[in-house]
Amino acid sequence: MLQFSLMGFPQTPFYKRKSLCFMLDQVTYQIGVSHVNCLMKCRMQEEGNCPDKFTFPSVVKAYVKLEDFDGLRQVHCSVIKCGLNQNLVVGGSLVDGYVTFDSMDDAVISFDEIECKNVVSWNSVIRGLVRATRWEEAWETFNRMINLGESPDHFSFATAVRICGALRSLDRGKQVHAKLIVCGFEGDVFVGNSLIDMYAKCWDSESCSKVFDQMKEKDQVTWNSMISGLVQFSNFTKALKLFSKMQTLAFSIDRFNLGSAISACSGLADVKTGREFHGYLVKNFLDSDVIFGSALVDMYSKCGFLEKAHRAFERLAERNEVSWNSLISGYAQDGSLDAFEIYHEMKLAKDVSPDSFTFTNLLNLCSIHGSLDQGKQIHAHLIRTVGMNHLIVETELVHMYAKCGELNYADQIFNGMAERNSYSWNSLIEGYEQNDEPERALQIFRRMQVSGIKPDCFSLTSTISACRKLSNIKNGKELHGFVVRNNLESQGILRCVLVDMYATCGFMDCACRVYNQTSEKDVNIQNVMLSSFIGCGRVDDAKWVFDQMEERNTISWNSILTGFTNSESKDEAFKLFRRMQEEHIESDSSTLVTLFNFCANLPALAQGEQLHSHAIKKGLFVYNSVVVDSSLVDMYAKGGSIERARRIFDNMTDRNVISWNAMINGYAKHGMTAEVLKLYELMQTEGVYPNDSTFLSVLSACSHTGMIHEGLEVFISMLEDFKIVAKAEHYTCMVDLLGRVGLLDEAKEVIEKMPVEPEISTWGALLGACKLHQNIELGKLAADKLFEMDPQNPGHYVLLSNIYAVAGRWKEVEEVRNLMRSRGVVKEPGVSWIDINNETQTFHAGDKSHPKHKEIYDTLRSLLPRMKRLGYVPDAKFVLRNVEDGEDEGESLLQHSERLAIGSGLISLSKNSVIRVFKNLRICGDCHTASKFISKITGRKIIIRDTNRFHHFENGVCSCGDFW
């Protein structure tokens, strides 16, 4: 660079200096800035010219064109030496030069050296500070200009308004707005556009629209700014209407308003209009543009059209973070794990890297799926890339770890955050509440209040739910009061959790009051009230709420179905399901599980089979839902069709411990202990570890078949190998196992040494074993314990009475019956039932109410001689009453309810049909023996389910091996 001194040159005539400046300008803009120094040196030396206020601005422009910052500073030094740094023109050119080089400190110094500043120079320095995003300094400079009496022009006001928008300072923006109205710039288009943008950024939609409506003159920027603002305010419909109106007024479609219009379609999930915009882009060869293409990806993603979003993404000529994030966000919001695949592709792409928005979407996806390992990998990668100083990312990490149950990690990140927002607190409170630590959730809620963060509907929802789990009605009422005082009752979710909290804590009157005070009841609060009534057994009230509902969703139907199934209203439940189908309500997995479980517990195999057929026809999750398939296995097993249960089990694509337990328990109930033990081993081979329910089924199977060695091995393995703490139910199985094989003293010793308190069922198992082995003394001991623990259960009295009756001690039998009468205990009558042609036929002992009772009795009587010829001898001890002399014991026994149900099956079902009988009590010993003979004589398969298990009678043999 040419070095020269400007001191000592003689002054030259004005016209010559002007000529030189003109020449410099021409060389700068026509020939090239590289020639400026040479020309300046030669001509100034030839003519003896000294640079002055006309020369320096041109030289400054030259150095700016050359992008020579050092040269500019040398000129600045020369200006100072010449004493022209205070000159408005020269100083102004230096300010402009330094602003161009983003050297704002030098620009401010140059500006401060100017003596007589004008609005142009003020605008220059303010513009520079804005360009450098030094917003507060820019605002202070604008204020200083006003205070020094300088009158702002339209550029000054427009810039000041922009500063207020950047600072999100609505108060300052309104001050500037008032000032510019006073100064007469209200009608200026440039200023009006800035005001629209400022009010949009400050979220003042009313003022934004008011400015737009009052503008008499509008240009393209005006329309673009307003459309963009409406999109920002989520007023998508109005944005699209304004876009259409803009076109009718002959304003053009450009990349700004078109991008906003596509965003409006995203917000409305209006894929139809969005596709019209897509067509316009394709027609104009703009669909591969990164801005428009990214908007299309975002629109299709938010509308749920992920394939179209992916195709739009593939069409992009280049991709930036926005386009990648839009696609990842779409898959993440859809809950698709494909988002991770796109994320890995993004990492391999050039000139683009995952940012905080990328990680936020992926962490949220991990939260949805509970993918802790994947979440930890994302956490590690974001530490290496974007770091941990992003509030949104840190908050999403807290949310992810809390959702995945890793509360220590969530706590650690939360406590290390430099700044926390309400979402951060809410995530941690929700995490503790949902992970069954409600007390801790309440503590964090209190900490949040102390820190100055005001609770919102999300934190209140989690905290009220925590009170529900704790049955803490006191704190629940306090939170209710907070909701009322802060006018938050309009938040539907809060009313729902309040109703739920009061109902769960047993304050149904309060729950009803909150519900009744809700003026506009939507389907959500009605569902909660419906569920609350069902939870406390008020099915009629639940039905009233259900009938009042103008809108019902699947949750509503499932809730009322659950109510009827819990109340064992078989006809009502299936009638309601048929009504669902008639009203074209889509069943879901919960509907099926509820009904399959209902059919299992009745049991109602015929209805279960019909429901299964319906599910297959409708494609409702069968064979691809572990929950539904497990309930199907359970339904068929409990309905007596163990072979069908096994086929479904084998066809399952996915099996968890619940599935295995359903099948193992099914085999246990059917007395197929060998199959139980095989499955028990197989599940471990396939990597599924047994839980306490598994061991309960295995031990029960061993006890019912007398496999004492196997049972003891399994019990020891549960304690030592699997470290599962035995519950009272497991000890009950051991008492039953020992008692059934006659080891009554050992069974009694187990009860005495149990580390947990024996339950009613534990003493009941001992009493049952005493009846089986006729141990009157120990039976009396067990019965006395049961009379203390469960005095209103008639079964205990009946068992003791039966022990005395079998021993012929009729006096003691009468004493037990008198004890029952004195305590108001009524013996549950034996009832058996059988399904014939989709109709349930019920029988009591000695029943003659059946239309074909004569034929049933004749059939049973006709079998009796043939049974006796094969060795059947009526067992008098199961008469269980003092038979008078001459009375036929065989005639009395064939009147038992299960025998009558079998007789009905023999005369009504085809010879190839299985006779399935269900009984509410244990099958009596004589009926068990008789059923074997009947199966042999008739060639029929008979299955009887009593309270304990299934008995499969075929060709004179029972599956239980006469051990039950």
Description of the structure:
The protein has about 950 residues and is mostly helical. Helices cover about 70% and strands about 5% of the residues. It has 52 helices and six strands. The protein has a six-stranded mixed beta sheet, covered by helices on one side.
Q: Mind sketching the topology for me?
A:
Blueprint: H1 14-31, H2 36-47, H3 55-66, H4 69-82, H5 88-100, H6 104-113, H7 119-131, H8 135-147, H9 154-166, H10 170-182, H11 189-201, H12 205-214, H13 220-232, H14 236-248, H15 255-268, H16 271-283, H17 290-302, H18 306-314, H19 321-333, H20 338-348, H21 356-369, H22 372-384, H23 391-403, H24 407-415, H25 422-434, H26 438-450, H27 457-470, H28 473-485, H29 492-504, H30 508-516, H31 523-535, H32 539-548, H33 554-566, H34 570-582, H35 589-601, H36 605-618, H37 626-638, H38 642-651, H39 657-669, H40 673-685, H41 692-704, H42 708-720, H43 728-740, H44 744-753, H45 760-773, H46 776-789, H47 794-806, H48 810-822, E1 831-836, E2 839-844, H49 853-869, H50 889-893, H51 897-908, E3 915-919, H52 925-938, E4 942-945, E5 950-954, E6 957-958
Parallel strand pairs: 3-4
Antiparallel strand pairs: 1-2, 1-3, 4-5, 5-6
Helix pairs in contact: 1-2, 1-3, 3-4, 3-5, 4-5, 5-6, 5-7, 6-7, 7-8, 7-9, 8-9, 9-10, 9-11, 11-12, 11-13, 12-13, 13-14, 13-15, 14-15, 15-16, 15-17, 16-17, 17-18, 17-19, 18-19, 19-20, 19-21, 21-22, 21-23, 23-24, 23-25, 24-25, 25-26, 25-27, 26-27, 27-28, 27-29, 28-29, 29-30, 29-31, ...
